[in-house]
Amino acid sequence: MRIGIDARIVAYRRGGIANYVTQLLAALAALDPQTDYRVLRSRRERGRAEAGSNLRRVTIYTPCHHPLERWALGAEVARLQLDLLHSPDFIPPAFGARHFIITVHDLTFLLYPQFLTAEARRTYNDQIGWAVRRADHILTDSEATSADLVRLLGVARAKITTVHLAAGPAYRPLPVAQVRPPLARYGLQRGYLLFVGTLEPRKNLPGLLSAYRLLLDRGETDLPLVIVGGRGWFFEQTFAQVEKLGLTDRVRFLHNVPDADLPALYNGATLLATPSFYEGFGLPALEAMACGTPVVVSERGSLPEVVGEAGIQVNPDVPAGIAAGMSRLLNDPALRERLREAGLARAAQFTWEKTARETLAVYRRVVAVS
Description:
Blueprint: E1 2-6, H1 16-31, E2 36-42, E3 55-60, H2 69-77, E4 84-87, E5 100-104, H3 108-111, H4 118-134, E6 137-140, H5 143-153, E7 160-162, H6 176-185, E8 193-196, H7 205-217, E9 225-228, H8 236-244, E10 251-254, H9 262-267, E11 271-274, H10 283-290, E12 295-298, H11 303-307, E13 312-314, H12 319-330, H13 333-347, H14 352-368
Parallel strand pairs: 1-2, 1-4, 2-3, 4-5, 5-6, 6-7, 8-9, 8-11, 9-10, 11-12, 12-13
Helix pairs in contact: 1-14, 7-8, 7-12, 10-13
Protein backbone atom coordinates (compact mmCIF):
# COMPACT_ATOMS: atom_id res chain seq x y z
CA MET A 1 0.00 0.00 0.00
CA ARG A 2 0.95 3.60 -0.49
CA ILE A 3 -0.68 5.58 2.31
CA GLY A 4 -0.78 9.35 2.64
CA ILE A 5 -1.23 10.97 6.05
CA ASP A 6 -2.05 14.67 6.18
CA ALA A 7 0.22 16.15 8.87
CA ARG A 8 -0.11 19.84 7.90
CA ILE A 9 -1.87 20.68 11.17
CA VAL A 10 1.40 20.19 13.08
CA ALA A 11 2.74 23.41 11.56
CA TYR A 12 -0.31 25.44 12.63
CA ARG A 13 -1.11 24.50 16.23
CA ARG A 14 0.08 22.49 19.21
CA GLY A 15 -1.68 19.83 21.26
CA GLY A 16 -4.83 17.94 20.33
CA ILE A 17 -4.86 16.87 16.71
CA ALA A 18 -1.21 17.77 16.16
CA ASN A 19 -0.19 15.45 18.99
CA TYR A 20 -2.42 12.72 17.58
CA VAL A 21 -0.76 12.95 14.16
CA THR A 22 2.77 12.96 15.60
CA GLN A 23 2.20 9.98 17.89
CA LEU A 24 0.33 7.98 15.24
CA LEU A 25 3.11 8.45 12.69
CA ALA A 26 5.77 7.28 15.13
CA ALA A 27 3.74 4.23 16.12
CA LEU A 28 2.96 3.31 12.52
CA ALA A 29 6.64 3.59 11.58
CA ALA A 30 7.54 1.07 14.31
CA LEU A 31 4.60 -1.25 13.66
CA ASP A 32 4.47 -1.31 9.87
CA PRO A 33 7.87 -0.72 8.23
CA GLN A 34 6.88 -2.35 4.94
CA THR A 35 4.19 0.14 3.93
CA ASP A 36 5.12 3.19 1.87
CA TYR A 37 3.87 6.17 3.87
CA ARG A 38 3.83 9.68 2.42
CA VAL A 39 3.63 12.35 5.13
CA LEU A 40 2.04 15.57 3.91
CA ARG A 41 3.85 18.43 5.65
CA SER A 42 3.14 22.14 5.37
CA ARG A 43 5.78 24.23 3.66
CA ARG A 44 5.81 26.23 6.92
CA GLU A 45 7.30 23.28 8.76
CA ARG A 46 10.97 22.72 8.07
CA GLY A 47 13.69 20.52 9.45
CA ARG A 48 11.50 17.81 10.99
CA ALA A 49 12.88 14.28 10.55
CA GLU A 50 10.28 11.58 9.97
CA ALA A 51 9.96 8.77 12.49
CA GLY A 52 10.92 5.92 10.13
CA SER A 53 12.72 5.25 6.88
CA ASN A 54 9.45 4.29 5.19
CA LEU A 55 7.90 7.67 6.05
CA ARG A 56 8.67 10.09 3.25
CA ARG A 57 7.96 13.80 3.54
CA VAL A 58 5.91 15.53 0.87
CA THR A 59 5.87 19.34 1.05
CA ILE A 60 2.37 20.76 0.61
CA TYR A 61 1.55 24.39 -0.19
CA THR A 62 -2.21 24.32 0.48
CA PRO A 63 -2.89 25.82 3.95
CA CYS A 64 -5.12 24.09 6.49
CA HIS A 65 -8.77 25.19 6.34
CA HIS A 66 -8.32 27.24 3.20
CA PRO A 67 -11.61 27.96 1.35
CA LEU A 68 -10.28 26.11 -1.72
CA GLU A 69 -8.61 23.34 0.28
CA ARG A 70 -10.69 20.48 -1.14
CA TRP A 71 -9.53 21.14 -4.68
CA ALA A 72 -6.07 22.63 -4.13
CA LEU A 73 -4.97 19.78 -1.87
CA GLY A 74 -6.43 17.25 -4.28
CA ALA A 75 -4.37 18.69 -7.10
CA GLU A 76 -1.22 18.50 -4.96
CA VAL A 77 -1.66 14.89 -3.85
CA ALA A 78 -2.95 13.44 -7.15
CA ARG A 79 0.61 12.97 -8.40
CA LEU A 80 1.44 10.71 -5.44
CA GLN A 81 -0.78 7.85 -6.66
CA LEU A 82 -2.01 7.07 -3.15
CA ASP A 83 -4.06 4.00 -2.39
CA LEU A 84 -5.46 5.83 0.61
CA LEU A 85 -5.26 9.28 2.17
CA HIS A 86 -5.92 9.70 5.89
CA SER A 87 -7.09 13.18 6.94
CA PRO A 88 -6.67 13.40 10.75
CA ASP A 89 -8.16 16.91 10.78
CA PHE A 90 -11.37 15.53 9.20
CA ILE A 91 -11.42 17.54 5.94
CA PRO A 92 -10.36 15.39 2.96
CA PRO A 93 -9.65 16.67 -0.54
CA ALA A 94 -12.30 16.20 -3.22
CA PHE A 95 -10.01 13.90 -5.22
CA GLY A 96 -6.38 12.78 -5.42
CA ALA A 97 -6.40 9.25 -3.92
CA ARG A 98 -8.24 5.98 -4.46
CA HIS A 99 -9.72 5.96 -0.95
CA PHE A 100 -10.20 8.46 1.87
CA ILE A 101 -10.33 8.02 5.64
CA ILE A 102 -11.01 10.90 8.02
CA THR A 103 -10.77 11.22 11.80
CA VAL A 104 -13.57 13.13 13.50
CA HIS A 105 -12.37 14.04 16.99
CA ASP A 106 -15.51 15.76 18.24
CA LEU A 107 -18.65 17.59 17.12
CA THR A 108 -18.45 20.58 19.44
CA PHE A 109 -19.44 22.91 16.63
CA LEU A 110 -22.79 21.11 16.25
CA LEU A 111 -23.51 20.44 19.91
CA TYR A 112 -22.30 23.75 21.35
CA PRO A 113 -22.20 26.32 18.51
CA GLN A 114 -22.18 29.16 21.06
CA PHE A 115 -18.68 28.09 22.11
CA LEU A 116 -17.16 28.98 18.71
CA THR A 117 -16.70 32.18 16.77
CA ALA A 118 -19.04 32.76 13.83
CA GLU A 119 -16.15 32.19 11.41
CA ALA A 120 -15.19 28.89 13.04
CA ARG A 121 -18.81 27.70 13.00
CA ARG A 122 -19.03 28.42 9.27
CA THR A 123 -15.76 26.60 8.57
CA TYR A 124 -16.71 23.44 10.41
CA ASN A 125 -20.44 23.36 9.73
CA ASP A 126 -19.94 23.87 6.00
CA GLN A 127 -17.42 21.03 5.83
CA ILE A 128 -18.55 18.25 8.16
CA GLY A 129 -21.57 17.00 6.19
CA TRP A 130 -19.59 16.84 2.97
CA ALA A 131 -16.58 15.26 4.70
CA VAL A 132 -18.47 12.33 6.23
CA ARG A 133 -20.14 11.62 2.90
CA ARG A 134 -16.86 11.85 0.97
CA ALA A 135 -14.93 9.53 3.30
CA ASP A 136 -14.84 5.80 2.65
CA HIS A 137 -14.49 5.29 6.38
CA ILE A 138 -14.43 7.42 9.53
CA LEU A 139 -12.28 7.05 12.64
CA THR A 140 -13.32 8.55 15.97
CA ASP A 141 -11.44 8.86 19.27
CA SER A 142 -14.37 7.62 21.36
CA GLU A 143 -17.65 5.75 21.25
CA ALA A 144 -19.27 8.99 22.42
CA THR A 145 -18.22 10.78 19.22
CA SER A 146 -19.25 7.76 17.12
CA ALA A 147 -22.72 7.98 18.63
CA ASP A 148 -22.81 11.73 17.92
CA LEU A 149 -22.01 11.10 14.24
CA VAL A 150 -24.86 8.63 13.94
CA ARG A 151 -27.33 10.81 15.85
CA LEU A 152 -26.48 14.23 14.45
CA LEU A 153 -25.36 13.46 10.89
CA GLY A 154 -27.05 10.15 10.12
CA VAL A 155 -23.77 8.34 9.42
CA ALA A 156 -24.15 4.55 9.17
CA ARG A 157 -22.57 2.91 12.22
CA ALA A 158 -20.80 0.40 9.96
CA LYS A 159 -18.88 3.30 8.40
CA ILE A 160 -17.31 4.29 11.74
CA THR A 161 -14.53 2.70 13.81
CA THR A 162 -13.63 3.94 17.28
CA VAL A 163 -9.89 3.96 17.91
CA HIS A 164 -8.90 5.33 21.31
CA LEU A 165 -5.86 7.55 21.78
CA ALA A 166 -3.13 7.12 24.39
CA ALA A 167 -0.71 8.96 26.61
CA GLY A 168 2.86 8.99 25.34
CA PRO A 169 5.64 7.09 27.14
CA ALA A 170 6.90 10.30 28.78
CA TYR A 171 3.76 10.38 30.92
CA ARG A 172 4.64 8.20 33.89
CA PRO A 173 5.35 8.56 37.60
CA LEU A 174 8.63 10.43 38.07
CA PRO A 175 11.04 10.58 41.01
CA VAL A 176 10.72 13.74 43.06
CA ALA A 177 14.25 14.73 42.04
CA GLN A 178 13.12 14.86 38.38
CA VAL A 179 9.98 16.80 39.15
CA ARG A 180 11.45 19.63 41.22
CA PRO A 181 13.69 21.33 38.61
CA PRO A 182 10.94 21.85 35.98
CA LEU A 183 8.55 23.08 38.66
CA ALA A 184 11.16 25.49 39.97
CA ARG A 185 11.41 27.11 36.53
CA TYR A 186 7.74 28.03 36.87
CA GLY A 187 8.04 29.09 40.50
CA LEU A 188 6.00 26.10 41.70
CA GLN A 189 6.30 23.57 44.48
CA ARG A 190 4.68 20.15 44.55
CA GLY A 191 1.08 20.22 45.68
CA TYR A 192 -1.31 22.33 43.58
CA LEU A 193 -4.55 21.90 41.70
CA LEU A 194 -4.08 21.55 37.95
CA PHE A 195 -5.99 22.17 34.75
CA VAL A 196 -4.46 21.40 31.32
CA GLY A 197 -6.17 22.45 28.10
CA THR A 198 -6.96 25.32 25.77
CA LEU A 199 -8.67 28.32 27.32
CA GLU A 200 -12.00 28.10 25.53
CA PRO A 201 -15.66 27.90 26.63
CA ARG A 202 -16.22 24.16 26.26
CA LYS A 203 -13.51 23.51 28.85
CA ASN A 204 -15.73 25.17 31.49
CA LEU A 205 -12.98 27.13 33.19
CA PRO A 206 -15.44 29.64 34.70
CA GLY A 207 -17.16 26.69 36.37
CA LEU A 208 -13.86 25.36 37.67
CA LEU A 209 -12.91 28.80 38.99
CA SER A 210 -16.24 29.11 40.79
CA ALA A 211 -15.71 25.69 42.34
CA TYR A 212 -12.22 26.69 43.43
CA ARG A 213 -13.58 29.87 45.04
CA LEU A 214 -16.02 27.73 47.04
CA LEU A 215 -13.20 25.49 48.28
CA LEU A 216 -11.17 28.51 49.37
CA ASP A 217 -14.10 30.15 51.12
CA ARG A 218 -14.88 26.97 53.04
CA GLY A 219 -11.25 26.54 54.06
CA GLU A 220 -11.00 23.17 52.32
CA THR A 221 -7.81 24.05 50.47
CA ASP A 222 -5.15 26.69 50.31
CA LEU A 223 -3.42 25.12 47.29
CA PRO A 224 -2.94 27.31 44.21
CA LEU A 225 -4.74 26.51 40.97
CA VAL A 226 -2.39 26.17 38.00
CA ILE A 227 -3.92 26.52 34.53
CA VAL A 228 -1.74 25.26 31.69
CA GLY A 229 -2.82 26.00 28.14
CA GLY A 230 -2.95 28.35 25.20
CA ARG A 231 -5.58 30.98 24.51
CA GLY A 232 -8.49 29.76 22.42
CA TRP A 233 -11.87 31.14 21.46
CA PHE A 234 -13.31 33.65 23.95
CA PHE A 235 -10.40 33.16 26.37
CA GLU A 236 -11.21 36.57 27.85
CA GLN A 237 -14.11 34.98 29.75
CA THR A 238 -11.64 33.04 31.88
CA PHE A 239 -9.61 36.09 32.87
CA ALA A 240 -12.79 38.01 33.60
CA GLN A 241 -13.94 35.26 35.96
CA VAL A 242 -10.61 35.32 37.79
CA GLU A 243 -11.01 39.06 38.38
CA LYS A 244 -14.67 38.76 39.36
CA LEU A 245 -13.97 36.06 41.96
CA GLY A 246 -10.91 37.78 43.40
CA LEU A 247 -8.56 34.95 42.42
CA THR A 248 -5.75 36.95 40.84
CA ASP A 249 -3.27 35.97 43.57
CA ARG A 250 -4.44 32.36 43.69
CA VAL A 251 -4.45 31.29 40.05
CA ARG A 252 -1.32 30.80 37.95
CA PHE A 253 -1.57 30.79 34.15
CA LEU A 254 1.19 28.98 32.25
CA HIS A 255 1.18 29.55 28.49
CA ASN A 256 3.47 28.02 25.85
CA VAL A 257 4.60 25.21 28.13
CA PRO A 258 6.87 22.78 26.23
CA ASP A 259 5.52 19.25 25.97
CA ALA A 260 8.66 18.04 27.73
CA ASP A 261 7.59 19.87 30.93
CA LEU A 262 4.06 18.46 31.10
CA PRO A 263 4.91 15.13 32.77
CA ALA A 264 6.57 16.98 35.67
CA LEU A 265 3.60 19.35 35.97
CA TYR A 266 1.21 16.40 36.19
CA ASN A 267 3.46 14.63 38.70
CA GLY A 268 3.62 17.70 40.91
CA ALA A 269 -0.15 18.15 41.12
CA THR A 270 -2.43 16.92 43.89
CA LEU A 271 -5.20 16.46 41.34
CA LEU A 272 -6.22 17.32 37.79
CA ALA A 273 -9.65 18.88 37.21
CA THR A 274 -11.26 18.56 33.77
CA PRO A 275 -14.91 19.65 34.15
CA SER A 276 -15.47 20.15 30.41
CA PHE A 277 -18.92 20.49 28.92
CA TYR A 278 -17.71 18.27 26.07
CA GLU A 279 -14.60 16.34 25.03
CA GLY A 280 -14.04 14.08 22.04
CA PHE A 281 -11.48 12.15 24.09
CA GLY A 282 -9.90 14.09 26.96
CA LEU A 283 -6.20 13.34 26.67
CA PRO A 284 -5.06 15.44 29.70
CA ALA A 285 -7.12 13.19 31.99
CA LEU A 286 -5.40 10.10 30.60
CA GLU A 287 -1.97 11.75 30.78
CA ALA A 288 -2.56 12.69 34.42
CA MET A 289 -3.63 9.14 35.32
CA ALA A 290 -0.56 7.77 33.56
CA CYS A 291 1.52 10.01 35.85
CA GLY A 292 -0.28 8.75 38.96
CA THR A 293 -2.29 11.94 39.48
CA PRO A 294 -5.97 11.43 40.43
CA VAL A 295 -8.56 13.17 38.29
CA VAL A 296 -11.92 14.91 38.64
CA VAL A 297 -13.74 14.94 35.30
CA SER A 298 -17.07 15.82 33.78
CA GLU A 299 -19.68 13.08 33.51
CA ARG A 300 -20.31 14.05 29.87
CA GLY A 301 -18.95 13.29 26.43
CA SER A 302 -16.03 10.88 26.21
CA LEU A 303 -14.58 11.49 29.66
CA PRO A 304 -16.51 8.71 31.47
CA GLU A 305 -15.44 6.34 28.67
CA VAL A 306 -11.77 7.24 29.10
CA VAL A 307 -11.59 7.50 32.89
CA GLY A 308 -14.06 4.78 33.89
CA GLU A 309 -14.07 4.07 37.61
CA ALA A 310 -10.55 5.45 38.00
CA GLY A 311 -11.67 9.05 38.54
CA ILE A 312 -14.39 11.14 40.15
CA GLN A 313 -17.14 12.27 37.77
CA VAL A 314 -19.08 15.50 38.32
CA ASN A 315 -21.86 17.52 36.72
CA PRO A 316 -20.14 20.37 34.82
CA ASP A 317 -23.20 22.60 35.12
CA VAL A 318 -22.96 22.78 38.92
CA PRO A 319 -19.86 24.48 40.42
CA ALA A 320 -20.82 23.18 43.85
CA GLY A 321 -20.74 19.66 42.46
CA ILE A 322 -17.31 20.24 40.90
CA ALA A 323 -16.13 21.55 44.27
CA ALA A 324 -17.57 18.50 46.04
CA GLY A 325 -15.68 16.14 43.75
CA MET A 326 -12.42 18.00 44.31
CA SER A 327 -13.10 18.13 48.05
CA ARG A 328 -13.42 14.35 48.21
CA LEU A 329 -9.90 13.96 46.87
CA LEU A 330 -8.43 16.78 48.93
CA ASN A 331 -9.81 15.45 52.22
CA ASP A 332 -9.37 11.70 51.76
CA PRO A 333 -5.76 10.52 51.38
CA ALA A 334 -6.88 6.89 51.13
CA LEU A 335 -9.17 7.75 48.21
CA ARG A 336 -6.36 9.65 46.48
CA GLU A 337 -4.09 6.63 46.77
CA ARG A 338 -6.78 4.23 45.57
CA LEU A 339 -7.54 6.39 42.54
CA ARG A 340 -3.83 6.85 41.86
CA GLU A 341 -3.42 3.08 41.53
CA ALA A 342 -6.65 2.71 39.58
CA GLY A 343 -5.62 5.51 37.23
CA LEU A 344 -2.25 3.94 36.52
CA ALA A 345 -3.93 0.63 35.69
CA ARG A 346 -6.55 2.34 33.54
CA ALA A 347 -4.01 4.41 31.58
CA ALA A 348 -1.93 1.30 30.87
CA GLN A 349 -4.82 -0.06 28.78
CA PHE A 350 -4.31 2.75 26.22
CA THR A 351 -1.15 2.63 24.09
CA TRP A 352 -0.12 4.26 20.83
CA GLU A 353 0.93 0.84 19.55
CA LYS A 354 -2.68 -0.30 19.99
CA THR A 355 -3.94 2.90 18.35
CA ALA A 356 -1.65 2.34 15.36
CA ARG A 357 -2.54 -1.35 15.08
CA GLU A 358 -6.28 -0.64 15.03
CA THR A 359 -5.81 2.25 12.58
CA LEU A 360 -3.69 0.11 10.27
CA ALA A 361 -6.38 -2.59 10.29
CA VAL A 362 -8.86 0.00 9.00
CA TYR A 363 -6.41 1.13 6.29
CA ARG A 364 -6.01 -2.45 5.08
CA ARG A 365 -9.72 -3.19 5.22
CA VAL A 366 -10.65 -0.10 3.21
CA VAL A 367 -8.00 -0.68 0.53
CA ALA A 368 -8.90 -4.37 0.27
CA VAL A 369 -12.50 -3.67 -0.73
CA SER A 370 -11.47 -2.12 -4.05
